[in-house]
Amino acid sequence: MDVTIQVRQRGVLTLPAELRDQYNIQEGDTFSLVDLDGIFVLTPMMPMVPELVREIKRARSETGMSLNELLKGLREQRERYHKEKYGPKQTS
After folding, report:
1. Which of 38, 41, 61, 73 has the greatest number of C-beta atoms within 10 Å?
2. What predicted TM-score, i.e. pTM, was given to this entire model?
3. What pLDDT score does 11 carry?
C-alpha cells in the first residue's frame, strides 16, 4: 500500500482509516518511532509487564533468590548506575 500522509499542526500525523482498520489501531495505542537515518519505522509498543513477570520468575527460579534478595540487588544496581552516571550524592 502506498499512502501519503501530512504533518499537521503540533506534529500530528493521521493514519488512513483503511490502515487503522487493517491493523486494528485504536485511539490511545502507543507506538515507537525509530529513525534509521531519515527512514522512519513505526512499530506498536507491546505491553511488557507479562514478559517482565516471566523474566523475574525465571531469574528467581534459576538463582534461588527470594523476592527481597532480588529487590535488594536491583536497588544496589540502581545506586551503582546512578553514581556512575551522575556522581556521588550531594549533601546539603
Report:
1. 73
2. 0.47
3. 93
